[in-house]
Amino acid sequence: MxxxxxxxxxxxxxxxxxxxIKSGHDLxxxxxxxxxxxxxxxxxxxxxxxEEDGPVTGQIAGLxxxxxxxxxxxxxxxxxxxxxxxxxxxxxxIFISSASAYAKPPRLPITEDHPLENPFWEYSRNKIAxxxxxxxxxxxxxxxxxIVRPSHTYDASKIPLPGGHTALYRILNNQPVxxxxxxxxxxxxxxxxxxxRGFSGLLGRTKALGQTFxxxxxxxxxxxxxxxxxxxxxxxxxxxIHIPSEIIAGYDPEIGDGLLGDKRWSLQFDNTxxxxxxxxxxxxxxxxxxxxxxxEWFRSHPEQVEINWQRMKWMGELASAGK
Length: 323
Known about the structure:
The chain is of the alpha/beta class. It has two domains: 2-153 and 190-215, Rossmann fold (3-Layer(aba) Sandwich), CATH 3.40.50.720; 157-187 and 220-266 and 285-322, UDP-galactose 4-epimerase, domain 1. Helix content is 41%, strand content 17%. The protein contains twelve helices and twelve strands. It has helices spanning 11-22, 53-60, 76-86, 122-141, 165-172, 192-200, 223-234, 245-251, 253-263, 272-277, 287-300, 309-322, and strands at 2-6, 26-31, 44-47, 67-70, 93-96, 145-150, 152-154, 177-180, 186-191, 211-215, 220-222, 240-243. The strands form three sheets. It has a seven-stranded parallel β-sheet, sandwiched between helices. The protein has a three-stranded mixed β-sheet with strand order 7-9-11. Helix 3 links the parallel strand 4 and strand 5.
């Protein structure tokens, strides 16, 4: 198959790009060529900013694709732009939505027909609006749509605790980390290589057209367990301070939106639908292994570690107040 990724060098898409090439498909990547992850060997690079009509039109002139996947759509106007580019030029258009779009509190385990609503987080509301626009195009203009909703997908560089690298820095330096609320809500973490195996099975599948899939691990851990596995991987005694989500949001709205709109709720997914269409898909990498990869990456890539010292300050203040 001839497959186009718009983006293709991000956390999830990079693993999917490698899986596509490994499967023997012809992969084209359209991006600016600026990512520090780089582009996988064997891909054809179409250097262009998807927001610039002239360069994009020039790059895709004379090209048709079996599948187009846009990894960097966040607003309905970008859906309309992609429709202009790719109507009649692809047999399948895959939109990367988000499991954060599911209404909260959810009914567990979550299936793909769970209602979509998120009054807490603009990012999720925009993804919902994108899905609504795509179904209009699918139903009225026969645009060949498949929607995929990842949940919390990670690689070794993406730390799941509030604050990311800053939180792991605190662990490694024997400082307490903050866990929202009581840390008892369940959360699903999916390794990007596991996601890629499920995702690749949807490419070019006629039965995936007009359908929505989430692709996640079947492992659900409490936030206390997630933190504990990171402390264990670091070889440090566990030191956790529980802070209400609303208080954290007051200190840092960027973290707070994700907590109030997503992470404070228990999330566990029913993956029956993806497994029925892609029978070989299984999430095989437990977070215990993922936590070890994170600590090893953090220690071996100091030049890529990003510590937010302003967050360090307020985290320290809340930790002291919450003792």
